[in-house]
Amino acid sequence: MVVLGTTSPSISCLPSSTQTDYKARRYCSFPQRPRPRPRASRFFCGSPFAPNAIHSPSLSVTNEALNVMISGAPASGKGTQCHLITNKYGLVHIAAGDLLRAEIATGSDNGKRAKQYMEKGQLVPDEIVVMMVKERLLKPDSKENGWLLDGYPRSLSQATALEALGFRPHIFLLLEVSEDVLVERVVGRRLDPVTGKIYHLKYSPPETQEIAARLTQRFDDTEEKAFINISLYETTIPSFH
């Protein structure tokens, strides 16, 4: 696990990996970078808004509400880590995609505006999503318990907009996994249509043959789609190198 310096408070909840070197990095520029070489999973921890990063393998929590942002490519394990973090620290889990769908379902002003773009097959503008995120972060439970912002921001403009509104995370978590592992996770993923539970043929196989027989594969859990999603992620996520 690679741990970067943070602004107080901070966390230390994720299990350590075989990666033991501690390197200071900065969240700064967004240049195009070459496709990363194959490597083991790595976990980076640091504040994207802190001007300097000082490495520390041991982090603790203060009494102040903890605010965290987490990012990772599709199948990098964000869902698992979000579950661990929210359970341990009682944070409010806020996923931009879920928030967008909820706003549309409730017919809010932001939801109606977003729906107009989505019905045309267009991306929802940053200013609409930022306002949705802002309103959620200002709710009492988020302010009192702290929040975990999942998969957002994904660009410099989004990060700048949030900072301009006064939202600065104490910690930014980046889950970095090799492309080969990401693709393997995607193509091996299966859904139990009865329970809704997600399995993996290699890493989390079904408990019984009965369950195995009814598992289905999502139409987009293919190698081709996985490469497309990974490439898209790499063009939008800021460079941490």
Automatic annotation (TrEMBL):
Its EC number is 2.7.4.3. It comes from the Eukaryota. Pfam families: ADK (PF00406). InterPro entries: Adenyl_kin_sub, Adenylat/UMP-CMP_kin, Adenylat_kinase_CS, P-loop_NTPase. The keyword Kinase applies. The keyword Membrane does not apply. GO terms for molecular function: AMP kinase activity; ATP binding. It catalyses: AMP + ATP = 2 ADP. Keywords: Kinase, Nucleotide-binding, Transferase. Belongs to the adenylate kinase family. Monomer. This is adenylate kinase. It comes from Glycine soja.
